[in-house]
Write a structure and sequence with these properties.
Elements: H1 7-18, H2 22-73, H3 81-84, H4 101-104, E1 109-110, E2 113-123, E3 135-144, E4 154-158, E5 163-166, H5 175-180
Antiparallel strand pairs: 1-2, 2-3, 3-4, 4-5
């Protein structure tokens, strides 16, 4: 016996098999949004942690470069970050070639942090061949460019070379303020 189909039944079945219904599409979009809502905060926290680790390493690099400058040229600690940089092949006490151009050129921003370097504790006698006298001490700071977006904590270091952390994200105003902060473990 042969079963005959109604003319509208075949057309309806073809339409149902042709694609997704609006409800199915909305469910898929909702699932994607839930996954994104879970993943994005974790991604932001990971980015902040990476920026903070890079900032600590850059403070360490600047501290090491300052000590190398002091021992190499006998002009105390440099007066500015630009002194630690340089573009020539020959290093001098005015362009030491100890830092990359990103850290030693204004606006001194790298990996979401703004770096500052200041001579401290008075100037030393100017060494021969140097354009300006160095300092007896220094203070290097790294503060988040956009707090809670590029970083949460700020970091600082002075001539003992110990890196200190400020959980408020504020840059230390002086060597004394930096030394009063907890040291980085």
């Amino acid at each position: 016996m042969r079963v005959t189909k109604k003319p509208g039944e075949q057309a309806r079945k073809a339409r149902l098999e042709a694609g997704f219904s609006l409800i199915e599409l909305l469910i898929v979009v909702a699932i994607i949004l839930v996954i994104a809502a879970i993943a994005i905060p974790s991604l932001l926290r990971s980015k902040i942690a990476a920026n903070q680790a890079a900032a600590v390493e850059n403070v360490r690099t600047i501290t090491t470069a300052s000590v190398v400058y002091n021992t190499t040229w006998g002009d105390g600690y440099p007066s500015a970050l630009s002194t630690l940089g340089g573009s020539g092949t020959t290093a001098t006490c005015d362009q030491a070639n100890l830092l990359d151009s990103i850290l030693s050129t204004a606006p001194y921003t790298k990996s979401g942090y703004v770096f500052a370097y200041n001579g401290q504790e008075g100037k030393v006698a100017q060494a021969a061949g140097c354009g300006s006298p160095g300092f007896l001490g220094y203070l290097v700071t790294a503060a988040p460019h956009n707090e809670n977006i590029t970083g949460i904590q700020s970091f600082c270091s002075a001539e003992p070379g110990i890196i200190h952390v400020d959980v408020t994200g504020s840059a230390a105003a002086s060597e004394t303020a930096c030394d009063a902060l907890p040291s980085l473990q």
